[in-house]
Amino acid sequence: xxxAVLEMTPPSVDxxxxxxxxxxxxxxxxxxxxxxxxxxxxxxxDFNPPVSSxxxxxxxxxxxxxxxxxxxxQKEKRKLKKQVLKLRKQLAEVRKLNDKxxxxxxxLMARQRPGLSEKFKQRGSKKxxxxxxxxxxxxxxxxxxxxxxxxxxxTITKNKQKKQRRVLTKPLTELxxxxxxxxxxxxxxxYRQFARRRPFYMTEPKTRxxxxxxxxxxxxxxxxxxxxxxxxxxxxxxxxxxxxxIVCDPKNKASMYRVxxxxxxxxxxxxxxxxxxVHWEQWEQAKSKNGxxxxxxxxxQTYTGTIQDLKELFLKRLENLAAHQFKTDPxxxxxx
Length: 336
Known about the structure:
By secondary structure, the chain is of the alpha+beta class. Among the domains are: 125-209, no CATH class; 216-332, no CATH class. Helix content is 45%, strand content 13%. It has 10 helices and 7 strands. The strands form 3 sheets. A 3-stranded mixed sheet has the order 1-4-5, with no helix packed on it. The protein starts with a helix and ends in a 9-residue tail after the last helix. Residues 31-68 are annotated as: Disordered.
């Protein structure tokens, strides 16, 4: 009885008989029969199950195909760059040839037909230009407009042409204004053309051109004119214009001597100003003795007075200068 009780204990796996190991029991088959049995996952955290090598192979295949595509694109890019450089060189050569042909075409067209300047050029313009130049030379060569310098070294050479120098007696602007009033309408020119047509041997006066003192009458009037113009009492500093304000005809003796009934009472008009004290300068003769000898020199003296005194002196000097200029200007004077 005791042995029977002991045999009631379930046998262990190690105690299973050999003839019962491969026996299939129908009642103990699981529901997923015929499928492989997967054991439970181990409890160890460091356990890494083996992964299939198929995704790595696909990834390597994709990378290699991308590299091949990139290389192919880079090669095509290099080819395109070479083609662009070649086309640019060809374009530069074509442009050079185009410019060359265009210039040659212009030269041929210029030979075949006249230019615009020649097409619209007036007939006889060269002849008229020569007449104007000769008129300017004749006008400036007159003794009242320029005088010949007598010095041996006072010569000017231009284009192997040697000429004795002539000095202008008036500023070029005043000469141009006088020229415009004397010549015909066809010979009238602008100041720029007048200065351009002036001969090369006619120059402005210089300090060394005066071997003696200047004319006292002209210089005294010029000093008064500069003083009045500086004070704002005169609109011009041209002595010729001021003389024309008080005479009706500069070529008439009666007008220049201030006995003409038409203009004998004409005077230069001044604006009204306050009566203040002013200073001005004039050239005057001064005697000096050196032992027994007496010398007369022309010295610049300073005078003081009112503005009214300065105006009266200027008007008196200007009338005397008109008669003086008529005496020293024989080609322009007419006796009536």
